[in-house]
Give the backbone structure.
Amino acid sequence: MGRNRQWHCGTGRLGVPAGEPGGVAVEIAASYGTRRRGLLGRDGIAGALLLTRCNCVHTVGMRFAIDVAYLDRELRVVDLHTLPPGRLALPRLRARHVLEARAGAFAGWGVEVGAVLTVSTARDDA
């Protein structure tokens, strides 16, 4: 998870401090197109979405509220908040990644400011 990690679009497992044994399903949006599309057009998300090389998000045009975690290079949570539809969040300068999930999910997963998360993908196992 270090600062030299090369991210690719796909899926993986998100290691969270509490809640889901074996982690949470995570979609990784590492290209411009996948980051731009994000959660737009969806009615919800079962796991989480990791937007990599991102420090600002919005919920304009979204149908549901989301929890947003801003992560630094080491995947440490630097800020958290919940965004209702139709909002624009301010950029977080220390953030390099953004994790999005349905509103209320982070509380159940034990995600809080200062927590360090992990992401494993099929590429990590190869």
User: Anything to note?
Assistant: The mean pLDDT is 90. The longest strand covers residues 77-83. Strands lie at 10-15, 24-29, 48-52, 66-71, 77-83, 97-102, 118-121. The helical segments are 32-37, 105-109, 122-125.
